[in-house]
Automatic annotation (TrEMBL):
This is TetR/AcrR family transcriptional regulator. Keywords: DNA-binding, Transcription, Transcription regulation. Residues 7-67 form the HTH tetR-type domain. InterPro entries: Homeodomain-like_sf (IPR009057), HTH_TetR (IPR001647), Tet_transcr_reg_TetR-rel_C_sf (IPR036271), TetR_C (IPR011075). Transmembrane segments: none annotated. It comes from Chitinophaga caseinilytica. Residues 30-49 bind DNA.
């Protein structure tokens, strides 16, 4: 006997689950909220995604994959890594969807929520942020070599600085308007540009 045909699109369901987790956080997102948003029943949920925690891990991994791809594209679109960094931070200062402005960064939110509550999930979020830091480092090293990034500070410290800046902007975008955020980005980038 053949298995039942899936009557929903996984990508659409995962997009909906991402929105619920991103807006509400892991703990506050109920199974009912997730099932309603994903427009699936419990059986489909458990058969396709597993339990709430397994779904969250899948959402987090998928979100990270898109973040890495987007970040790399922004760097590759410019000869100067400073312009790539500026484009990355424009995602904060010029969100496509204004609701995203108030939600903060999904990875940063996850790390903040999970620290002290679920160290395995906190470690996952932390490691993903370290991987993003490694992407900064790759392009900063290239910029130092090409004279586009200051040599006085190690690229490793600059990559950590940018990660810290991103984490801070995740909160600051809930406080300041676009102009204030862009001024902050310009000031901070002036610290690493020659």
């Amino acid at each position: 006997m053949a298995g039942r045909h899936k009557e929903f699109d996984e990508e659409t369901a995962l997009n909906a689950a991402t929105e619920v987790f991103w807006s509400q956080g892991y703990e506050s997102a109920s199974m009912e909220d997730l099932l309603t948003a994903m427009d699936i029943n419990k059986g489909s949920m458990y058969n396709t995604f597993g339990n709430k925690r397994e779904l969250f891990v899948r959402v987090l991994d998928r979100f990270f994959k898109y973040a890495v791809n987007d970040m790399t594209q922004k760097f590759e679109a410019h000869d100067n890594p400073i312009e790539g960094i500026r484009d990355i931070f424009r995602m904060v200062t010029r969100p496509v969807d204004l609701k995203d402005h108030a939600k903060g960064c999904f990875l940063v939110n996850t790390l903040g929520e999970m620290c002290g509550m679920d160290e395995e999930l906190a470690t996952m979020a932390r490691n993903k942020l370290f991987e993003l830091e490694a992407i900064y480092l790759k392009y900063l090293r290239k910029g130092v070599k090409n004279g586009q990034v200051r040599k006085e500070v190690s690229p490793e410290l600059m990559a950590r600085f940018l990660t810290n800046m991103w984490n801070g902007m995740s909160i600051s975008r809930r406080m300041y308007n676009r102009k204030a955020l862009e001024d902050l980005v310009d000031m901070q980038l002036s610290l690493i540009a020659p």
